[in-house]
Amino acid sequence: MNILITAAQGDTFDRHFPAPILEQLRALGTVVCNPFPRPFTAQELAEALKDTDIVVTHWGTPQIDACMLDGAPRLRLLAHAAGTVAHIASEAFYERNIPVLSANSVMARFVAESVLGYMIAATHRVAQLNASIRAGSWDKRLGEQTSLFGNSIGLIGLGTVGRELLSLLAPFGCTVRVYDPYLPTGALERWPFAAQCGFEEAMRQPIVSVHASQTPETYHMIDANALELLPEGGILLNTARGSLVDTQALIAALQTRRIYAVLDVYEEEGAGNQPEALLQCRENTLLLPHIAAAPATWQLTQAVVDDIGRFLRGEPLTLAVSLRQYRLMTQE
User: Fold this and answer.
1) DSSP secondary-structure letter at 265?
2) Residue 199: is its pLDDT beyond 70?
3) 54 DSSP β-pair partners
4) How far lies 165's CA from each of 115, 146, 224, in Å?
5) How far is it, in rounded angstroms, from Cα 332 to Cα 329?
6) 182 with 131, same domain?
7) Pair 122, 237: CB distance under 8 Å
8) Domains in the chain: how many in total?
9) Is the pLDDT of residue 329 over 90?
């Protein structure tokens, strides 16, 4: 049993694949690791897959398409030790009945925890009060501070993160309105304080959190018209993908100081890539460098390793990604 780990060597590998987890994998088969301090190229991955039975993928792994699978006749399982697999797996896996696993549901718990923290920080204007006191002020009235308790929240897209967030919101007595055109009937029964609604109603809530997948359909779904629906003092949080929000429209709305935004993702990410006009909106933004899932490291890998064990023992899988789920996942 040959197990290939595609993660690049370095700090990320060490945090996600610590020695105890590698030992667990070695107990299941012969482990081969990507030897490079960078992701495999498509050609290198195709070569490495030739004698592989199980591939454990990670960020940066090239997509494994039908052609690559043709050269990997032994491959029995893809196990992704991170979130979306839309850019790594392909429909060829489903056509050949090769199971696809993802730690997306595990990562979602950590992202939801971050979102809850961001909501509390935003409603209490933590960043602005911190900046104010460092500047020598003692203005307790800075911004309009509110609370999550008894508040109304709109979710744009539900997905795995949204479901985890609903569970975390339960003690706060919130009313939650969910816009998700793909939501199955009865999906909200576990959360009696949540109800499905249209897009405009969700956007009219005092707090709106974006959790839709990145697809051509959702590009700039939060545009100028959508932002106008937010009430005075409304809070927009985006921890999904930057392309879901029209950045220029958001900047224009922020410059009026009518709304507040918490952004963990951007249309252009990386140091120095955020528009200066956005950075200047200090009084009504909380900006973070795409770290909502950062606390999740070895926990993702451990969940995948546990499911690999279940697969080899012929037991039901807990992280399997159905074809429907695959098609709805964020496309990088």
Assistant:
1) -
2) yes
3) 3, 77
4) 8, 19, 26
5) 9
6) yes
7) yes
8) 2
9) no
Residues 161 and 280 placed together within one structural domain of the fold: yes
Helix axes 298-313, 19-26, angle to 10 degrees: 10
Q: Are residues 274 and 141 in the same domain?
A: yes
Q: Supply the CATH number for residue 211's domain.
A: 3.40.50.720
Partners of 100 in beta bridges: 78
Token look-up 């897209």 returns: 157
Same-domain pairing of 24 and 113: no
Domain identity same for 183 and 86 = no
**b/e 269-292 (16+ beta carbons within 10 angstroms → b):** eeeeebeeebeebeebbbebeeeb
For residue 304, the enclosing domain spans: 2-105+295-328
User: What confidence tens digit (pLDDT) does each residue in 203-255 have?
Assistant: 999 999 999 999 999 999 999 999 999 999 999 999 999 999 999 999 999 99
Angle at 199 between CA 198 and CA 201, to 5 degrees: 70
Together in a domain, 40 and 132: no
Cβ–Cβ contacts within 10 Å for residue 54, how many?
23
pTM (2 decimals)? 0.90
CA 178 to each of CA 72, 187, 210, 326: distance values in angstroms, whole numbers, following the listed order? 42, 11, 10, 21
Q: What pLDDT does residue 32 have?
A: 98
Mean of the pLDDT values across residues 324-331? 85
Q: What percent of the chain has pLDDT over 70?
A: 99
Residue 182's pLDDT is what? 93
List strand residue ranges (DSSP E) for the chain, in order: 2-5, 30-33, 54-57, 77-80, 100-102, 152-156, 175-179, 194-196, 207-210, 235-238, 260-263, 285-287
Q: Is 77 left (phi over 0), alpha (psi -120 to 50) or beta?
A: beta
List, edge to edge, every strand of the sheet that includes 285-287.
Answer: 194-196, 175-179, 152-156, 207-210, 235-238, 260-263, 285-287
3-state SS class at 129: helix
Q: Are 107 and 83 contacting, i.e. CB atoms less than 8 angstroms apart?
A: yes
pLDDT at 37 over 90: yes
Angle between helix 104-123 and 126-134 (nearest 10): 50
Residue 243 shares a structural domain with residue 161: yes
Tell me: do 207 and 195 sit in the same domain: yes
